[in-house]
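In response to reviewer comment 3 from the previous cycle, which asked for concrete evidence that the modeling workflow produces usable outputs, we include below a single protein chain processed end to end. The sequence was submitted unchanged, and the resulting structure tokens are shown without manual editing.
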Amino acid sequence: MKYNLIKLHKENDLNRLLKKQKKEKKEISILFISKWDKYSSALVEQLERKYSQGSEPGKPLYIVDNYHMPHSFVIFKSFMLPQLVNLGKNRVYVQEYLPEIYRQFELE
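The workflow returned the following structure tokens.
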């Protein structure tokens, strides 16, 4: 699956995104990271290398970092980073296990 990486810098952007998802019931993915965590940095670098090439449209992957948006981490009780949150039609799936996150993005 191809992903379109979108970095969010304001909490209002995330709040708008969540309200829109609640109305439209579209599936979205949000990756919570920390700029000071070496595992988060490595994951984002690999994602950028793999998915920022070309202009093919893909599923949006919103990246939220704790420096710009510290209060947004309370929404999904993010205590371990990186954390991947998949919002679907009637479900919320949270993944904190790093090897599983790599597997979902087809990274090594």
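Strands lie at 3-8, 28-33, 59-65, 83-87, 92-95. We consider this sufficient to address the reviewer's concern, and the full set will be provided in the supplementary archive.
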